[in-house]
Hints:
GO terms for molecular function: phosphate transmembrane transporter activity. Pfam families: Mito_carr (PF00153). This protein is an all-alpha fold. The chain has 11 helices and no strands. Helix content is 79%, strand content 0%. The model has no long low-confidence stretch (mean pLDDT 87).
Amino acid sequence: MYSLDIFNGFSVTVREDGVRGLAKGWAPTFIGYSMQGLCKFGFYEVFKIVYSDLLGEENTYLWRTSLYLAASASAEFFADIALAPMEACKVRIQTQPGYANTLRQCAPKMYAEEGLWAFYKGVVPLWMRQIPYTMMKFACFERTVELLYKYVVPKPRSECSKSEQLVVTFVAGYIAGVFCAIVSHPADSVVSVLNKEKGSTAVGVLKRLGPKGVWKGLVARIIMIGTLTALQWFIYDSVKVYFRLPRPPPPEMPESLKKKLGLTE
């Protein structure tokens, strides 16, 4: 049933707007998510270092999942401030026929009608959608990579070729993407309605959609987000390989902690 919804969506779009309709809103999508991605991945590395320094080596290992969650949530908070205006324009272009066809038409019109608030009225629901999404994306990816090298890959990471390491990155990214889609889908449904309806509130939209409405289209989102997340991690890791940037291996228990726990002879 859900796969039919996906194909029906494509066919309706092509029938009503032509093939060009599939690319409607491409400019705010490209600009917004490029800015968000830059902030998200960049700030994640920064916050991971900051929080790790605060915790110390031993606690960083013991509480590494919490570290990933905190660093990614902090990064996404700022990334969404960069994304919100473009997301608002994208939704308005895609969901209100005749309102505007391009970013240059949409942004001034929104500002004239509703002021600066028009671009940021969806930022709180955006945080509700994106922060849990990103926390899952980074924490799940980091721990999945760790588990794949420990239980699936038949040799240590140091003995794997760069190509083999990138395959592990892609697989871990896809697994993380599936969980991301599930965690963020209800809030995504609310944001989509909120940005296309003037004067609506997140609480009101949530009540109107109900439990069934907020989960509509989940399978399509899993396919999209799983693939997108896998590609993001693959590209991110590939860039690090190409520019010979540091690519730390999965964390190992510090020797000092092993001694405390009596794990060394």
